[in-house]
Design brief:
The chain is of the alpha/beta class. The chain is built from seven helices and five strands.
Length: about 140
Amino acid sequence: MPKWPWLGLLLLLPVLAQTKLPTFFSPPTVKEVGSFLATITTDDYNRDAVEAKQLMEFMEAFVLDVRPPQDYKNGHVPGAVNIPLHELPNRLAELPKGKPIVVYCGSSHRAAMALLFLRGQGYEVYNIRMGWKGWTGAGLPVEK
């Protein structure tokens, strides 16, 4: 798989723009972020829905839904905690350290941004390939 660190950085910028924390990008910071993103390939963090369910069951992974609250209310992965993507930088204290996190959204776009942000914060994070669509498409349980 090709590694495109600049693409990951572009995906991460909207998340950082939403935070109320002061942020700036000095040349060393950009270089560090780029170096980190270059180490990530899609095989490292994408899991299909069945693999993600096994991670949740056997490794007691924390399940993070980064969709808007209304989407969450309409149906979500059992046990998932809803923290919309734009709130994530300000709600890190709600996430467990030392425990895998499985993140998803509607189709994986927002989840990919959350994954990159959280990996950069030191969390062990995995994305459900195709997000909510992948979960429901696999016929897995849904909670309302």
